[in-house]
Recover the amino acids of this structure.
């Protein structure tokens, strides 16, 4: 049986609290991701990418940039084989092509295709973690909101429609809302089954992303708790080691 001493416990504890996650900061801007990771603790930046010279100047002024960190101005020109090792790839890719700040042209906007640069580097380097914005999924959900609401209304108001057609009074408002929902769906040229499946897929993906975020937050909370309890844990380990030493000393005396 393999023995475990207090000294080994100390080593494992220090390994958990001091092991840094190395990350590369894509589309860094002025460093929103970096600020959050620095505040969380336990992360080390190995480089960043930002094409806007003014944003990059702000990034360098705000954050403590190490001499060993690499810099790429254009994400499209990054050679994954020449990048330093990293565990986490994070990137707030330009969202103007998806949000109200732009024309919402999606992948038809050249900025919208920059998302694939993150995918290209992730595929080549296969980092353990990938941190990105949920913009595309949230925008897709927002753009389809009327249709998704119409789907829900058709399903929820079907009993009211039947009661109205059977002659029950008081169902006029519900029946009118039902007809509006049907008209909305009929005018979108998307089959209802396809729309329903799309809605389920988007919501499942967003739910999974939120579950992943909550899981990572729990890990960070655990790390912070360990760090806050480190002095007491060190004290307790010292006491255990001291007692172990006394026991060994007594054993040698008895021999």
């Amino acid at each position: 049986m393999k023995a475990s001493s207090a000294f080994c416990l100390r080593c494992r504890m220090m390994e958990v609290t001091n092991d840094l996650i190395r990350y590369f900061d894509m589309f860094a801007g002025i460093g929103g991701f970096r600020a959050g990771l620095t505040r969380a603790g336990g992360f080390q930046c190995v480089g960043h990418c930002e094409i806007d010279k003014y944003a990059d100047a702000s990034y360098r002024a705000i954050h403590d940039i190490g001499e060993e960190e690499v810099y790429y101005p254009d994400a499209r020109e990054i050679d994954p084989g020449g990048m330093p090792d990293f565990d986490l790839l994070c990137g707030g890719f330009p969202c103007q092509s998806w949000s109200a700040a732009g024309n919402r042209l999606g992948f038809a906007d050249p900025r919208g295709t920059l998302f694939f640069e993150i995918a290209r580097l992730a595929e080549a380097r296969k980092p353990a973690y990938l941190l990105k914005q949920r913009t595309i999924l949230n925008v897709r959900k927002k753009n389809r909101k009327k249709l998704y609401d119409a789907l829900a209304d058709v399903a929820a108001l079907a009993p009211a429609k039947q009661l109205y057609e059977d002659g029950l009074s008081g169902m006029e408002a519900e029946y009118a809302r039902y007809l509006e929902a049907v008209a909305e769906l009929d005018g979108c040229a998307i089959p209802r089954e396809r729309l329903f499946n799309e809605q389920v897929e988007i919501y499942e993906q967003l739910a999974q992303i939120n579950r992943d975020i909550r899981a990572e937050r729990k890990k960070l909370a655990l790390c912070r708790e360990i760090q806050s309890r480190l002095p007491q844990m060190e004290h307790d380990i010292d006491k255990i080691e001291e007692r172990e030493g006394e026991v060994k000393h007594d054993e040698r005396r008895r021999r």
About this structure: The longest helix spans residues 192-254. The first strand starts at residue 21 and ends at 26. The helical segments are 6-18, 32-40, 53-62, 115-125, 135-143, 145-165, 172-186, 192-254.
